[in-house]
Write a structure and sequence with these properties.
Ubiquitin-like (UB roll); 5-stranded mixed β-sheet; 5 helices
Length: 174
C-alpha cells in the first residue's frame, strides 16, 4: 500500500536495502519493519512482539543491528540496510547457516532471521579485546528470544561459525 504523495503525513525516503536502492513516499509513522514487509515484500523480517523485545525483526542499519519494529522508515532515510534476505553476500553467512542446521539451531524458524542477523554482526565485528566464547555469544544474542530451541544449539552454531573454515585434508606432493 503506497502513501498518497498529497498526504501531508507522507514523507519521501531513499534507502539501500540488500544492495538495491529504493525511493518511496511513505506515511511518516510507518515502521521500518512494515516498510520492508509491506512496501518492499521482504517478509523475512518477522514481527513478533512489536515492542523491540524479541529480536525477530532485527536488521542491519549501516552495519549495526537495529529493531525494525521500533524504527520508523523515515529514520532510515539515506541508510544502508541488510535484511535476512540479503545476508548471503557476506562471507560468514554460509558457514553460519550450515552451523545453525548442524547444531539444531532451527526449530519453527520464526526467530531465526533475527538470530542470523545478530550473529552475523557479531562474526563480522568481533571484539578483539574479548575472545569469542559461550558467554560472549550468549550476551550478544541476549536481545533475541527463541521459544523452541533452548538456545544451546544457537550458541554452539555461532561458536562453530566463528571457527576458520577447515581447509580440508592436506595432500602430500608427489
Amino acid at each position: 500500500m503506497a502513501a498518497d504523495s498529497r498526504d501531508s503525513n507522507a514523507v519521501p525516503v531513499s534507502i539501500s536495502v540488500n544492495g538495491r536502492n529504493f525511493r518511496r513516499t511513505v506515511p511518516a509513522r510507518l515502521t521500518l519493519a512494515d516498510f520492508l514487509r509491506d512496501h518492499l515484500g521482504l517478509t523475512g523480517t518477522h514481527l513478533g512482539c512489536e515492542h523491540g523485545v524479541c529480536g525477530a525483526c532485527t536488521v542491519l542499519v549501516d552495519g549495526h543491528s537495529a529493531r525494525s519494529c521500533l524504527m520508523l522508515a523515515v529514520q532510515a532515510d539515506g541508510a544502508r540496510l541488510d535484511t535476512v534476505e540479503g545476508l548471503g553476500r557476506y562471507e560468514q553467512c554460509d558457514r553460519l547457516r550450515e552451523a545453525f542446521s548442524r547444531n539444531g539451531g532451527l526449530q519453527c524458524g520464526f526467530c531465526t532471521p533475527g538470530f542470523l542477523v545478530t550473529a552475523l554482526e557479531l562474526l563480522r565485528d568481533p571484539d578483539t579485546e574479548k575472545p569469542l566464547c559461550e558467554q560472549s555469544v550468549r550476551e550478544a544474542l541476549s536481545g533475541n528470544i527463541c521459544r523452541c530451541t533452548g538456545y544451546q544449539g544457537i550458541v554452539q552454531a555461532v561458536l562453530d561459525a566463528a571457527e576458520p573454515p577447515d581447509p580440508g585434508p592436506e595432500v602430500e606432493p608427489d
